[in-house]
Structure formats: structure tokens, C-alpha cells
Predict the structure.
Amino acid sequence: MEKGIVVAGTGGQGIVAAGEFLAEALFRAGYEVINSRSYGSEARGGSCRSEVLFSDSDIYDLQLDEADILVILSIPAFRRYQNRAKKDALILVDAVVLEKLGESEVRTDVKLVPVKARETAIGLGNPIVANMVLLGALARHSDILSLEDMQGVVREMMRVSMQEININALESGYSQA
Amino acid sequence: MAVKPLRYYSDKYIRNQPSAFCVGCGDGTILNCFVRALDELEVPLDKVLCVSGIGCSAWIPSPNFNGDTLHTTHGRALAFATGAKVFNSDLTTVVFTGDGDGAAIGGNHLIHAARRNIDITTILVNNLSYAMTGGQIAPTTHHGERTATSPYGNPERPFDIAGLAAAAGATYVARWTTYHVLELTRSIKEALKHHGFSFIEVLSQCPTHQRRMFNMRDPVYRLPSRILEMFSESTYVRGRTRQENYRYAVPKASPENALEEISNVLVNLDTEAKIVDHMGFGRVVRIDSKEPDMEWANISRLEAVDRLVGPLEEKVELGVFVKEEMLEYTDSLRDLIRTAGGI
Amino acid sequence: MLNPGRHLVLGNVACAEGAIRAGCRFFAGYPITPANEISHYMAAELPKAGGFFLQMEDEIASIAAIIGASWAGAKAMTATSGPGYSLMQENIGYAHMTETPCVVVNVQRSGPSTGQATLPSQQDIYQAKYGSHGDYEVIALSPWSVQEMFELTVRAFNLAERFRTPVMLMADGMIGHIKEKLVVPEKVDTVGRRRPTGSECVPFGTDDPSMVPEMPRFGEGFRLLVTGSTHRPSGVRDYTPKYHQMKVNRIREKILKAENEISDTVKVDLEDAEVVVISFGASARPSYGAVKEARSQGIKAGLLRLKTIWPFPEGKISDLADDVDALIVVEMNVGKMVQEVRRVVCGRANVFSVSKIGGVLPSVYEINQVIRRAA
């Protein structure tokens, strides 16, 4: 089994951090993992993506053609990456992004899950954790990682002062219907 | 300073290799001063590392010096020396470089070594050109000088290298010439003892190229002393004020004519006039006067005289310009290791 | 530092970790994308191990400093990318001439000149061998994974000490910047330089069959004469043809005749292969996938992966040429390794090139297509 996740958005939205977090969580869960990232021409305000390939055996490929899971935080990222998803792929996208798109711009052959990411993050006190809200939703809508797996990684990896808001963000994302 | 026989120094400090220096080269003098300084300080020879780049100056330590020597690439001696000194700070590390090697291609490494204040002594031999390769212009060559790469006269202005080293942060900076051997030896001792970046610029004679540069048509055996006398005449030492009253008369054409006319005017006066070499003005007539009310205007009005210049005009200042204590680089790195928790 | 065990690590970090484990205690470098993470890790971790990290004023000073440090006794390394690697070439030649052990990491990016500064390539492989002026031989290694960024850096140090030579670690911006599994071992086998035993030493000559002289260091009373000029075994400058031939022949021979010891290749499915893909570094990853896919398509494909690219494995490739119909060389440049293969194969088999530039890896599909056509 080999799957690929793409986290994409704008520089400054914690895309790389989210990808690294997911990669670490999957790695600790025992998968073989490859995590790579790329930037657009500017680090801030430019496009940014992080890819996570994971498998239960050694991974030789480095490139992901079509993702099994997409986590999207910005409109340009949605437009760019929606077509690089497999049929029936799981696409978790911030609700504010989806609101701005017309029906014709959105694929119908995928499992599209809008998540109130930015709104929830602001409510929790910092818009930067919108990425974690989406990852919490990922735990809910796929079986690759549990919420507990993810929260465990927060406790092991993050500074104590950052842990609470991140755990709450994951929880909020998970609990959204 | 106790005077030991030359044999003592050559047996102990000099490798038995044929010398590659030109007859009358200042490099031999500098090597001489260096080993005397080492000897007086009783620096253990096994712990001395001499690093050099490319050029005539590079051959001062390599292969002549009987200690560890590292003869590297053009302009890069200080960078190589930095690596060795940082890793083994017990090494008394000395860099020999030249005006081209040290201030042109090596300029960047010079200013950063000075900025870091790394405990290395750098002796920069300034012979005013790229001597080894044929006398091309260097960052120290005078404006207007005709050389192999400036057949119409040097379009560039020279550096004040000692000034550059001081501005970059060197904590011991001095300039001497190969005429001032006692001061140079003493300065090298100070530099070796100094814990920080020490820089000594040494104006050095290169009879091979400077004969053309300074238009000296003497036979070879006379050139070195003539150039050294020119160095003596064309420099002054900071802090040493001379009380003599003298001027230089720059001739319009022949210095001999000027001397004749001047001598005629000076008859019955307590004066002395002679032709000397001046790096700034060429062959000029130096007039020393003990007369209390000397009428210099009488001389400047003479037909054969272009103008009269003062005692310090266009002269190179010598001396110790900087001597201060500041945090040294290898100490700083070791502090860092302690902070990080390493041994 | 990482504890022994399984970690998810960035390629560049694995390289730096391997260096410290191999005994590196001196690093000098200059900022350049995509090698910076090596410097950052070294800056943080080397002092903890009692080592020295220096950021020098440029790449020329960096390579000079590591050579000076090596002669003072250090295992020393620098890391850079294309533009910096070009600047270092003169002093790399100096390291060859003076037989100075040291490691130079080139995390290759796409050129020429500033090029695609953040994107990977394998464009510098000829520069590794011929970058400096003059005649010499080089050892160059090519890691294809984060694990190999660790292991081959350790090997680079060991080879540098064993053969008294600079060793090039030809990494690339792809492997340098992915995070992948690194299993850090309990123990790492390290090799030290052969130090003089007595009070006398011939620093540039030896009767030892390895042709590698003892390596002294400054400050021990050997009164060393180290110079980039051609020299006699004692170090004394001597430009005569006899001494030049002696020196250059020996520094080349000591590496070339040890090809069996140095050369390291991995064979995948070669036993009955009719079409063999030859690749190295990041390019070998999709090559592996393409070969496996070809096998599933019924094609007798195999992969020869080069972990050492110089000295070039002449013998192995020559043998292959007699056994197979086609060789396909996959690389991220305009076709450089393929020229070596063509040279050795000398018409005995068909040679195809998959040469991809632009900062992107050749895809499994692309390579597979060529395998199918060649079969």
C-alpha cells in the first residue's frame, strides 16, 4: 500500500509545518514515509506545498503524480491541486475557500470535505492553527491516523506553550460534522 | 639585543637550500629579522607554522625556514592559516604575503582575518609590484608608473594597506622598511607576542623591478643600498620628530644643474646640499640648513628648480599605528564550545 | 545529535550527523542554497562534540580552512552547491597535490551560473572529476536516500583518511531536502590516517604497496614542507619532469589500482537481465520503480546503481556490455554519465540516454517507456 498526501496553500499558512507534522505522525505510527516540500517564488504570499508519501514497505518513488488525500488552505492551491487528485480522493478544504468557488470549478468525483478551519482557529486564538483543524478533520474522515495518534505527536514534538492550542485545534477539526 | 653570529641563525633556523631570491632582494633581510625575533623570544621551533601564498614573499618561509611550512594558493594563505590555527591554537602561526598576494587577490581574506582578530602574525612584503611574474601593476604601485601592464602609465591609485588592516580591525598594525631592521625586528617580536591579529607591512627593495620604476641606472651591486637609502629618505617614523630644518628642491630638468645653481646661492651659508632619491619626487636636491633665518625663496626662484617641497611631503609614515587588546577569535570559538557543552 | 534508532530526518541533516559520527571536528562553510541545513546542523552540534564550526567569508576560504585544519590534524569537511563548488576548484586541486584528507559535499543544484537555485540536478559530475586544472584522480560518492546521506558521508571520511585524498560527496538538492527514515546505528566504523611512528617522516612518498604515504601534522617537529608546487617525496619543490611524473602517477595510481576496494555498486535483478538501467543518486529512485514495473510487464530488466561514480566502475560496466542487449543511463543533466558508459561499452551493446534537466526527476513512466523500447 502506498499513498500520497498533499498539503497546499500560501506561504505563511503553516503548510510545511503541517506536512512535517503529518509525516512525523505517520512515521511514529510505523509507516515508511517520505516528506518533501516546494515553494513558489516568494516564501511569503507565494504558493507552497508539502507532500507526504507513506507506505507499509520501502518507498522508492519520490514523486507523487496523483494524491490520495489533499489538504487545502487557499484558493490558488485548490485550483492548482484539485486535478492532481485521484478519483475518490479525500479533499479536505477550508470552508472559506470553497465559498469563493463556483460549482463548475469543483470536481464531483472526489470526496470533498469543507472544514471551518480559519474560523475555528481564530476562535481558538490564533489563525495559524487552521492547518491543525484540517488535520483533525483528516483523522475523522480517514483511517490512516487516529486523533490520539496526532495529539500524542503534539505532546512529544511541540513546545509546551504551543501544545494546548494545537491539541484543541485537532479536537475541533475532528469534532466538526 | 645580544648579537649572535649569523652562522648561529642559519644553522638553527634556515634550511640548507639554494636561495632563489634575486641578488639584493629585501626578502632575505626580512627572513633575517624574523628568525632573530623568534630567537629572542625563544619561541619553540616545533610549534612555529609559517604559511604563505604565491609570489616572491611566499618563498621567505618555503623552503628556507626550518620549521613547519605551508605554501598555498595565491592570496589564500590567511584562510589556510585560519584553519590550522583554530584547530591547534598552540601553533605560533605566521603568514608571509606580498602586496599582490595579500592586498589584491587576498584582500578579502585579509580584512576578515583582521576583523576576526585571529591570533596570527601577518608580514606583508610590499615591493610595489607583482615582482615574480614580471613587475605588473599591483594595488600598491604608484599612479603613473610604467610597468609591463601599464605601458602608458598606471591609471590606478594605490592602497594604504596598513590603514586597510587597521580599519578592518587588526589589533597590532605597523609599517617599516627593510632599511629599518632594528625597528622591524622589534616590531616582529611585539607582533608575535601580541594575542590577536598582528599586521606588519614592510616596504622592501626589489632591485630587479624597482630599478626601472625609480629610474636607477646603477650597476647591480649598488642598487640595494641605493634603494634602501631612498627608503630611509622617503619615510618618517610616527612620533619621532626631527628638529632639522630641510627642504627638497625638485629640479626642472637635470638634478646636477639644479645642485650647481643651488650650491652657488648657498655659498657662505651653514648649509649642505646633495642629490638624493625621493620616492615621491624622484631625484631631488636635499638642502639642510642650520641658518636661523634661512631664505628658502631664494632657492625656489632659481631657473633650474621647479619647486621646493617640505620635509614630510609625499613621504610614507612608519611606526606602530595600532596596539590594542580585544577578544581573539580562537578564544571566542573555545568559549562557544564551552557554552555548547562540548569539552 | 541523534540517538541510535529510527528517525525521520532531512537528507542534509543526515549528512551532517554522519560527518560528526565519522569523527569530523572541523567544518568551514559559506551560506548557499540548498546546502544550508548542513551548516546549520554543524553550527549547533559540532561544538557539543568539541569541534569547530566556522562560517568563512567565501567558499574559497572555506576549502582553504579545512585543508589547513586537516594538516593540523583534523577530520574536516565543507558543504556547498554549484557556484561555491566552482569557486573551490583551485584549492581542491591543492588538496589533491598535497594529498590532504578532507570531505567536500556538493548538494547539486541546477545551473549553469545561478540557474534554478532551489532545484536539484546531477550536472556537476564531470566537475567532480575534472573541475580543477591539472591531472589527478578523484573519489566521488552518490547517495540515493537519506540513509545513504548518513552512510556515504561516513564512508567519504574513511576513504579520505585511507587514501589521503579529498573525497567528493555528490549529493543533490532532492535527497538533501526530503525527510526520510534514518536508522542511526549504535556504532560507526571509522578509519584514521596513518600517522608517522618515528621522529622522521617522508610526507609525500612511501614504499607501502598502497602508495599512500603517512600523514603527519603540524606542531610535532617534523619541519614539514607542504607546497602546491611539484615536489620531491620530502616536500622540497622540484619542477623536473622526473619528480612531476613520479608524483602525479602515484597520486592517480593509489586510487585507480584500488578500484575494487573503492568502487561500490548495487545490482538489482541483473542475473538474467537483457536491458539494464544504470543510474545514481536521486535519479536511481524512479529508475528502480521503472525496472520493477518493466519486470511486471514481462521484460527482463535490471538496475545497476552506482554508489561511487568516480573512479568509474569500468570493469563492471564492461562485463555488462557483453551480457546484455541494451544499457539505459538515467541522470539529471544533459547526458554525462552516459558518455562514460558509451566509452567503456565501445559499441558492444546499445546505449540509451534518459537525461532530464530543468530541476525535475525523470519519471517512472518516462524511464519505463525507454526500457520497453529498448527491450
Observations:
- Chain C touches chain B through 49 residues (CB under 8 Å).
- Residues 1-262 of chain C form a domain with the Rossmann fold fold (CATH 3.40.50.970).
- Residues 146-163 of chain C form the longest helix (18 residues).
- The mean pLDDT of chain C is 97.
